[in-house]
Amino acid sequence: MPDQRDEQLAYCALENLEVVREFEDAGYSGKFLERPDLDELRDLVATGGADLVVVSKRDRLARGLYAGYLKNEFKRHGVELMALDSRTEDTPYGALLENTLDNFSEFERFMIADRMRRGKRSKAKQGKLVACPQPDYGFRYDEARDGYEVDELRMALIRRIFRMVGVEGMTLNAVARRLEAEGIPAPRGGGTWNRPILRKFVLSDVYLRHSYEEVTKIVTSEVAATLDHSAHYGISWYGKQRHTHSREVRVKDGKKTYPRIKKSVDAPREEWIGVPVPDPGIPQEWVLAARKIIEKNEKVSNCGRRFWELTGGILRCAACGGAMATNFIKPRQIGYYRCGKRYRLGKHACSQGKNFRAEETETTGWEFVSGILKNPQRLRRGLDEMLDRERASASQGPGEEEEVWLKKLSEHEVQEERLLDLYLEGKLEVDRYGARVSQLKQARKTIEEELGRIGDRASHIEHLEQDRDALLNHYSRIATDRLDKLEPEERNRVYKMMNLTVLAHANDNLEVKWILGGDPCRDNATLLPDSCRTRGT
Q: What fold characterizes domain 2-121?
């Protein structure tokens, strides 16, 4: 924010400090450490590029226990952290005060989230919609954005879909092909209609007409009193799922990205809150008939009862980098790999529309890999290089980092005991005690997650070492004829041990990358004559 930046620059000018660089993680929450500018700041500190880090507010750098973790990390590199809103002495008392501020910041975030959750549920119980970025197709938000109005143009298409499925008996695939042939845009843009979208329409209760009597069994009496006894309503359910968000660091083409990851789990049925919406005007019998038609639909498996040995992210589209999906043509008994992103999202999502014959692609990949397995010296060289890179990727030793978090855990346990003493002595009210316990539980969870992450990192390297030994001790000793007869499942396991990636190009080229460095695995090494190339990473 401009005022925070001005405050920091004023402090630097007052103290005659040279500003080496400014960092700003706009759009990223301080509750996550996975942020691009924060990563660059930590790298700058680790390489000795700064002597002091100045922030206007401690919780702008990181919230909760992460702030203390970063301060200790900076301190190990001889760099001081100066938070202008909480200047403390470098004494045990100062450390205690900082821990208190960090815990209060985490508690504040927890209380804000809890109030927002309660507020949304209260709004839904009042018969008002909790607005999402996009309304259900066929509706639009009213001016207050807490109710629906029918969008007649789009709702006419919804009614047509239900008629095609429920009355005419068309399959969802046939409906999708019809809409695409007519050039009707899909709900999220583009011209591709797919089964999940249509299935979601059929199963959504916003399109199922409910009588007043049916609605009164779902909503509160206060909401029912505002409804028209002679009208019909759809039902929008709030709270069907619980969502959690996190950040991940991913590397693509040598560049870091920080996608926000959303995970959803279904909530118990009794926690759902029904909100009445205007009558969609679709005959109830159409909706029920459409649901009956698709209820026996099973999720189609396109694997054709074969094991696809290049699945699991091994074979990827060279155009977009996405994992290749599978397709099995039953009448011809032929399997193909195709770009999964293009198949799911449409032609606009990826330029490569080529299908790759599964048997030929898998044979080509295995010929390359088996050639490596038959050369133990080449295999060991590549595996050792991979392990060296993994060990060097950690900015500090796992034991040192684990010690920091174990110390935090010890301090946390002392706080829990002190809190319980205050409550038992009658010096703390029940409400304040309960809120504080909830906050401490959240803080403990953060500590345990970090300790688990450290353990996972060490375990990952240990598993890599085990995979290396397994490859060297087992596959390099297998006779040549036996190696060529490994089952697809076993080949897939070998590929994952080798961190193998195969990029499929539109011109039929297959570009193979694995853990070996660029020197032993040279560019343009041929897999198939004049058609494939390989290179190491």
A: Rossmann fold (3.40.50)
